[in-house]
Design brief:
About 60% of the residues lie in helices and about 15% in strands. With about 675 residues, the chain is of the alpha+beta class. This is Diguanylate cyclase.
């Protein structure tokens, strides 16, 4: 019998290793129950192992009784493990589960008091057999009651596992089969030992528990699929942004996901178990949601945490063995798609710069007016407007400033016209306005109001000016398109009449802007104009060209308005990149000049006023007499005035020193003949 004792000892050590291997696992109720089962089995196996090595009668009997500390709780623990494995614990009330522990407790009390009543064992003694000394028993009624209850616990465990088997998807059933199969050796070993089907001199039930213990170890702590699958499905469903209701066959709501609870709150029990069709409208009211029924679907809109959500309804029937047992109602989250579509719709009809409607939507509205019965909307006023000299503003101060003025004009128009009017930006600097039930007197008043606001809010280079034309559709004799065409023509006629004064206003603003800038002064402009006029007369330029030269002297640096002050006013030496920016002012000035008939005569002079006699100037590298005479004059007189007056980057030099500098640059930077005439003129002053 010694070798059997060795085997039992090895098994006991193995159980210790199993317990140690669980130290790195998370401490859960499942782990606690399993460790209790291992501990009980360890007591049982260890007691049996010790009994194989000792021969003292009293000690053998004590150890034999002691092992029941481990034997009695095992059926109960096996049932609880089966419940936890199959997540069935919630179906049994906790109090009822605690009552099952009465069986091992009472059995233990009966065992320790057995000498008084012999209910558990009628007799318990040690006998010498041919293989050694063994404990012999004659079982009492309490023992058989315990065995019966233990078999009930085992039977319940198997039923729970079978139920789990049928509730799992087919590809997850293998583990359940393995556990059920592992419990068979326990039952077989116990039946053989208790009912003495085979003549054995020791109990082999504990050995039958070993494979069950090992399989539970692997399945419960390494691959707990029956727990992972339902839990993972629950997490996935609750993490969805879709609203999900589970409906029974009779139409009652029996479950929902987190999003449904978030939208509709924790609805009352009478709602939860009410029929979906009857209670859903009440849920919508509770959630302050709105529902829209369209041809092919139902859509709801709801605010959650100050954010707009949209859902569209779908449903799917639940089948079991070909029979409908319920359905799942989905409200799929289409918020992103809906909001994106709304944005696209807005973008399709909105001008992104001003926030007004765009040309495409304006044309759509005009087309609708032409195709509808509009008798109740007459008279209809069509107004067209065009901002004056916006190209010049863009060239001088850049497109950002031009855009700023367009936005400002859009704001003025929106403030003046009634709220129910239709206002659109129909071109770069053009606006279209449609007003219903509006008489001509009101249109004239609005146009005057817009022009007055422009005068009040415009200032200097930012001066606002707009030409406005209109047409009143009082009946349907002429189409809306004809009235739109008439409003266009009216606007352009006014523009032709007003453009000269508008451009003159812009030019005056340009002069003022130059005079008020940090890098140009009114005195410098006047001195340059006077010197340029005298030098021009000295070389015999005709009287009718003198005014152009004087204008060139005043505005030759107009392009510098588009150059940042940080570069123009920099006292240190400019970098190569900064000098390249400075050089663009000639081209910028030219573009401003050619955009205005009043300045076109001096455009070439502005473009070339930084060319050099030796061809090393900019922007085109002209040399000698290729350079316009006006540019050659301005180059000399401007350089002289700059040298003899203070600048941020140098102090003024004496007249004699400036003349020496003119002579030094004679034939390289300046026209040599003009230099001689200039010096002659200066010496006579």
């Amino acid at each position: 019998m010694i070798y059997i004792g060795v085997i039992y000892s090895i098994i006991a050590i193995m159980l210790i290793f199993i317990m140690v291997s669980l130290t790195n696992k998370e401490c859960t109720s499942l782990k606690k129950v399993y460790l209790m089962m291992i501990a009980c089995l360890f007591i049982w196996i260890s007691a049996d192992a010790v009994n194989f090595f000792i021969s003292r009668t009293s000690m053998k009997l004590f150890i034999y009784k002691f092992k029941y500390i481990g034997v009695l709780p095992l059926p109960n623990l096996l049932m609880i493990l089966a419940m936890k494995y199959c997540t069935k614990k919630k179906r049994i009330k906790p109090k009822l589960l605690k009552l099952t522990w009465i069986v091992p407790i009472i059995s233990f009390v009966v065992i320790i008091t057995n000498s008084y009543h012999n209910l558990f064992w009628k007799s318990l003694y040690v006998a010498e057999l041919h293989n050694g000394i063994s404990v012999m028993t004659e079982y009492g009624v309490a023992f058989w009651i315990f065995v019966a209850i233990a078999y009930v616990f085992l039977f319940i465990s198997i039923l729970i596992l079978i139920s789990c088997y049928f509730n799992l998807p087919k590809y997850y059933r293998g583990q359940t089969i393995l556990i059920i199969t592992a419990m068979i050796p326990v039952i077989v070993a116990n039946v053989i030992s208790i009912f003495e089907i085979i003549n054995l001199e020791y109990d082999i039930t504990a050995l039958g528990l070993i494979p069950c213990t090992i399989i539970y170890r692997y399945i419960l702590f390494d691959t707990i699929i029956p727990q992972v699958i339902p839990k993972s499905r629950e997490i996935i469903i609750d993490s969805l942004k879709n609203i999900i209701f589970v409906i029974e066959k009779d139409g009652k709501i029996i479950d929902s996901n987190d999003m449904a609870r978030k939208v509709f709150g924790k609805y009352e029990i009478n709602i939860k178990f009410g029929k979906f069709e009857k209670v859903f409208e009440e849920l919508l009211v509770k959630a302050n949601a709105t529902m829209h029924k369209k041809n092919d679907h139902v859509e709801i809109r709801v605010m959650i945490d100050d954010r707009e959500y949209y859902f569209v309804k779908n449903e799917s029937l639940i089948y079991d063995k070909g029979e409908v047992i319920g359905k799942v109602i989905f409200f799929n989250d289409i918020s992103y798609m809906k909001i994106t579509m709304n944005k696209l719709e807005i973008m399709a009809k909105q001008d992104m710069l001003t926030g007004l409607f765009n040309r495409l939507y304006f044309d759509e509205q005009v087309s609708k007016i032409g195709n509808l019965d509009i008798e109740d909307k007459l008279p209809i006023a069509i107004i067209k407007g065009d901002i004056n000299s916006i190209k010049m503003i863009n060239d001088v101060l850049g497109k950002k400033m031009g855009d700023k003025l367009i936005v400002k004009m859009a704001g003025i128009i929106k403030d003046i016209v009634p709220e129910n009017s239709f206002v659109a930006r129909v071109g770069g600097d053009e606006f279209g306005i449609i007003l219903f039930n509006t008489k001509e007197e009101l249109v004239i008043k609005m146009i005057k109001g817009i022009k007055k606001r422009c005068e009040d809010e415009g200032e200097g280079i930012n001066n606002l000016s707009i030409c406005l034309g209109y047409s009143i559709m009082e009946n349907e004799d002429k189409s809306i398109d004809k009235h739109l065409e008439y409003a266009d023509n009216c606007m352009y006629r006014k523009k032709m009449m007003e453009s000269k004064s508008a451009r003159s206003s812009i030019i005056d603003s340009l002069k003022i802007a130059l005079e008020q800038s940090n890098y140009e002064t009114k005195e410098h402009a006047e001195r340059t104009r006077e010197l340029a006029s005298k030098l021009a007369k000295k070389i015999g330029i005709k009287e009718n060209r003198l005014s152009d030269i004087e204008m060139l002297a005043l505005l030759h640096d107009i392009g510098k308005l588009a150059v940042p002050d940080s570069i123009l006013m920099k006292p240190e030496k400019l970098t190569d990149e900064e000098f390249e920016v400075i050089k663009t002012h000639s081209q910028k000035g030219y573009e401003i000049a050619v955009s205005s008939p009043n300045l076109i005569n001096i455009a070439e002079g502005i473009l070339h006023h930084h060319e050099r006699w030796d061809g090393r100037g900019y922007p085109e590298g002209l040399k000698g007499e290729e350079i316009p005479i006006e540019s050659r004059i301005i180059t000399i007189v401007d350089s002289y005035d700059v040298m003899t007056n203070d600048r941020p980057y140098h102090n003024a030099m004496p007249k004699e020193k400036a003349i020496e500098e003119l002579l030094r640059c004679k034939g390289s930077q300046f026209d040599p003949e003009l230099v001689d005439l200039m010096i002659e003129m200066l010496e006579k002053q």
